[in-house]
Amino acid sequence: MVKDLTQAELLTELEPVVADSLNRHLAITAAWNPHDYVPWGDGRNFAALGGRDWIESQSKLSEVARVAMVTNLLTEDNLPSYHRYIGENLSVDGAWGTWVGRWTAEENRHSIAIRDYLVVTRSVDPVQLEIDRMEHVARGVHAPEEFEGLLIQLAYVTVQEVATRITHRQTGRVCNDTIADTMLKRIAQDENLHAVFYRNILEAGFNLAPDQAIEAVTKVIREFDMPGRGMRDWRRNGVLMVKHGIYDLRQHLDEVLMPLLRTWKVFERNDFSARGDQYRNELGEFLDKLQSDVVRFEERRAHLLERDAKRAAAARVAATG
After folding, report:
1. In this structure, is the dihedral angle defined by the CA atoms of residues 63, 64, 70 and 74, taken in order, positive or negative?
2. So what's the pLDDT on residue 2?
């Protein structure tokens, strides 16, 4: 029977990979400033300083764009929880700690840029945005107990970073605003580099402790949910974003899960014990079910979009008499 490595052993064995990956990340990451992506000339005072408070007609974004931007922002806002949780499951010492600090600082730029853009352009109600931020950050992130540990945390953040990259990119496309699209492309580039970092560390984890790694990946994929869960109107907003292709099951399967599993050679490896093979089989069965779910979802979405289009057309006819 293969003996599992302890958390301390995994941290020690993987630290050289972390150091190399950190140096590579710093070498290829381009510096950028949030203020360069905000149209400051569009700004004006609110009532507290003698101006006018927000009203919905000031927003140039569609409802789905506003929902997606706020969801992305509030997700980024929970950095205090993420920093604590990642620090507890990885380490705040050595190369691990340097990475955790660097990752947190880079992620913080995302929330700065998005919030400044939304407030300056009056795209959303800033009062409600602050209420939602206070509530969401105060609640924090509480991962299930089975998600404790180094490898399972690496698996989760890898999947989450790829998913977040797609969400930002797709949000930019529905904003119908060049500045917002450019800003979210820049943020998505960061998320991609973060995903590559975590993906590579977990690849080394597969080579070091294959059974533990496949167990972690299987659990995360079967129970995955985005970290913004719990924010106000989460379900309604999620449905709207799925409906309009911001992030849906097809993207989750084809653009997130399968590329990662191919990189890790999950279904090609021959170094699993019977235990590892059992988890791999469970994962394969889950992916088969997910594929069926994707087909059903796409059929239902097509029906809903067709129905909405007919209703909109009927409304236009009625409005024109």
Report:
1. positive
2. 65
Q: What is the pLDDT of residues 55-69, one digit of tens each?
A: 999 999 999 999 999
Please tell me the distance from the alpha carbon of residue 10 to that of residue 106, in angstroms, as a whole number.
26
- How far apart CA 61 and CA 122 sit, in angstroms, is 10
d(CA 78, CA 31): 23
Instruction: Give the model confidence (pLDDT) of 2-21 as tens digits.
Output: 689 999 999 999 999 999 99
DSSP string, 223-253: H---TTTTSTTHHHHHHHHHHTTSS-HHHII
Contact 82, 155 (CB under 8 A): no
CB atoms within 10 A of CB 98: 15
User: pTM to 2 decimals?
Assistant: 0.90
> In 130-164, which positions are buried (b, 16+ CB within 10 angstroms) versus exposed (e)?
eebbeebeeeebebeeebebbbbbbbbbbbbbbbb
Contact call for residues 120 and 43 (beta carbons, < 8 A)? yes
List Cβ neighbours of 246 (8 Å cut-off, separation of 6 or more): 64, 68, 167, 170, 171, 174
pLDDT, one tens digit per residue, over 174-197 is 999 999 999 999 999 999 999 999
